[in-house]
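Job type: complex structure
Entries:
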Amino acid sequence: MHELSIAKNIIQLAREHLTAEEEVRLRTIKVNVGTFSTIVPAQLVFGFEAAREDTPLRQAELDITMIPLRIKCYSCGEETEIDPVDFICPSCSSPNIEIIAGNELTITDLEISDS
Amino acid sequence: MSIKTIERKVLQKNDEVATENRAYFKEHGILALNLVSSPGSGKTSLLEQTLRMLENRLPTAVVIGDVQTNLDAQRLASFDIPTIQLVTNGSCHLEASLVRDTLSEIEADKTKLLFIENVGNLVCPSNFDLGEAMKVVIASTVEGDDKPLKYPAMFRNASVLIINKIDLLPYVNCDMDILRNNALRINPSLTIFETSCTTGEGISGWCDWLQQQVEDQSWDNVSA
């Protein structure tokens, strides 16, 4: 449900980096979404399509890249991709780990058509 | 086609305000806790019990977020403390700016502990930093023992778990060992309390821990 407010944040942030001319020509907003960020991609697209209607960004689409959950183990140093319910190192079973990827919610690029 | 690379966090503005809130709390020596749970887990009942026990022990203030009504603030009105109700009008979570806007209603130099009761929701609030020192997640026994596995982000991002409604254990399908183990599987560093707001069991342990946290933080601020 919070995807709509996230979508509004995306639109606001994108507009801060665009001129009025570029806003109309914006085609794609590339975003990274971590699999552990609690964002549902389909709902984010739905929220974005609703939120862009009252803005000059009516032609823009979201291009979402999902970032897997990755951890670094402090015991053995291994970096591994894990499922979100197994917060232990798959190599040495240590729970002494840090999440190094999977929480992302970032805009990376704005693609603007030339005409 | 031209490409502008911007690499910006979507919730950057919220995070900036949260950082300001955190600095404000630290400057005034206020321990701010973000209470998160599903609706009906007993957040407000836990607050009632906690405020009763901390009366005359710790100067406390409460900010309550709800989608509608000020019913929760009314429940806490008998306590002689600042209680600020935030109505989000449909939004499923509190944001840092909403909390910031309440700070003028709290006498910062007379407050040591601030409870921020978030909207009942185990998903959305985990994205929105409010500037709290820690998140306290409340899970009641009636919700079953698999909650941490279903909502891992909230349990991973919390520092404290309160398992509430333990008086109902004989009547519900919840195994305490499984619930504890599931929570620790997601987050081994969780501090866990077990409480009943009906019998009062476990409340004093939780309140003693809160007082200790506040004292430690004050000491930290003095030395800093």
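Summary: Chain A touches chain B through 33 residues (CB under 8 Å). Chain A has a mean pLDDT of 94.
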